[in-house]
Amino acid sequence: MQENELKNILEELYKIDSSLREFEGPLREVIIQMSDLGPDTQFTPALAARIKEQVMNKVKEVSIPNHTAFSFNFINKQKYVYVGSALVIVLLLMLVVYKLPAFKQFNPDSNLELDLAGKDNNLALNTVRSDNGDEVIKLAANAFGSLSAQTSGQDTGMALAQDARMVNELGQASVMPVSSETVSVSVSNDFAITPIAPGFGAGGSGGMSMSKMIAPWYQIKYVYAGEQLTLKDERGEVYKRLVGTMNSNLISLVKNLKFSDLEMSSFNNLTVSNLSLMEDKEKGLAINFDFVNDNIYISENWQKWRIPERDACGADNACWERFRLKESDVPSDSDLIAISDEFISNHEISLNHYGPAQVDNNWRQDYELSSDKNNYYIPEYMSVVYPLMINEEAVLDQSGNPYGLRVNINLLQNMASGLNGLSPYRYQSSDYNLETDFSRIVKVAETSNRAGIYYGSLNDREVQEIKLGTPTRAYVQYWRYQNNNNEELLIPALVFPVLTNNNQAFYGQRSVVVPLVKELW
Amino acid sequence: MNTSFNVTLVDELAKAAQNGASDAFAQLYDLHIKKIYNFIYYKTLNKTVAEDICSQVFIKAWQKLSQFQGGSFSAWLYTIARNSVSDYYRREHQHLNIDDCWDLSDKEDFLARIDQGLNMEKIQETMKVLKNEEREILMMRFWLDLSFKEIAEQLEKKEGAVKMACGRALKNLQHNMPLVVFMLLPELINICKKMN
User: Fold this and answer.
1) What domains are there in chain B, each with its CATH number?
2) Shortest CA gap B102–chain A (Å)
3) Chain A positions in Cβ-Cβ contact with residue B27 (cut-off 8 Å)
4) DSSP 8-class letter at B106
């Protein structure tokens, strides 16, 4: 410890407790020793990268319960007051109406309960059900109630647009032109092909340029430079994913299990919420069923995927370096897709509702921008995404990423080692009014820049003008918090691609997503 | 030493992450990983355990981002880390009600659970005499190199109170000085031999 630092610490302590001066000698010794005794934590960049990989893989699987979906600060405060007041009135009305006996007959949620219980569904206008259990139940208009009213208080501002970063990865064929009857929308090659910020875009891949994390500060101004569109669709379908439908008869098995220290029959009304199975073999997999949210995840049974030589590296950085991937080690997109397809085929997973496979290559943009490519951490896992399709349109998550079935490939083993996003295709749908005033939508897109896209120093702030191209239609996954549950809705939206970016190195957004449902405006 | 991050940057990244931007969260990870990992390591003294808890901390942070209501993101992360370490010890040692490895009263248990090669058994005797919070303040000040102001922020206390606690802890340690000196004696002898 430096003498100056030691003096500073002592002076700071004396200011609070002057009696400590009497013990200055021993105190100095204690501080020096305490400081020197700090154990070596064995922290290394390799360790950080390894933890990051685990964390970001999980982040990919778990969407944040969306209390701030479409929440940006570009609606003026007066609007907040109006919108907030209106919501209070709507909520009060709902409370009053709910008390009426007749209400339950028209309550979409009671309808859901009836349906899941296998009884007649009085409100279902039409149910499309296939032999394999896929179904879309068409309900009356506005059956899901207000799409935004039940979200948290801070959403009452109901901002509308969401910047998206990875829309460019969407298969172009899977993105439908807006109102194709009236206008030809170019789903062009320049669909948001924009470099991404260093440190950004690594997404879950863990591909972060450690050497260059802080970027200059600047402010974004979006300017629409696309075609003027005529939007004819005044109504559009919103989808709600049904959960709790993966029928599990496991409980009858479990109830009969005998445990020496536990009597299972002493418990009542048991249900199975999740189930984990492991393949007990080399390169075995773990299969996890989430019966609450109707999801299936497959991951590595990690004990069977260990690399003993690497596990033995300990704090030896040179040893870790030997296992570090180079850019040339990453297979081509076609090879990755072939590995993924084989995995899908081996496990007989149906791709009926998913679009063409695409590789999540965001790390490459970060890599290209890295000033120190030799030290760039190449992710050990790559993802191949099969975007969920609904109404022949691709679904994006709220960050603009293709949303759907994601197969993970372990590059060290050159094998697919898991997947997430596998859910039964069971939805309710209901028509909602859509915004058709294109100039209004453009205005929202142009004013949607948000906090979180500025980096670096507070000084030297400058405004960067960024052009947005002609939008395309897509569905956006949207979480609504209601009845103590998060409900997954798919909402029609326009996706504006980012066309120009003068300060390419430090801008992460590739597109701006504006939901079309008026409920959210 | 100035160890503080660009607070505005962290705030902006936290907001973006709350809006679902996983890449912003990745950047938050990069900014905090070393401090958080070290903090956990100082409370577990075991690399494997620290690594596991550390990944849980960041996963929990992502899952609970909607509950982060502003303020210091770092302090919020430290709180998750502290609670996760406590959870770990309460799960592993249900009969003990302890918060970190320094509370392990059985010396053999302590030695069995820390990394081999760490000569910490003597300092454990010393650290045990401190309250959990005093120990944490000393760790943060002398091992993590945080300023008193930063520690106050992480612990959501007044700076003066942190300094008070630090002074109290040092006084306490000073009474245990003979033990600390004893612990260092072999090293001092070695140094003297080399000098000769």
Assistant:
1) 7-195 (1.10.1740.10)
2) 13
3) 199-200, 208, 213
4) -
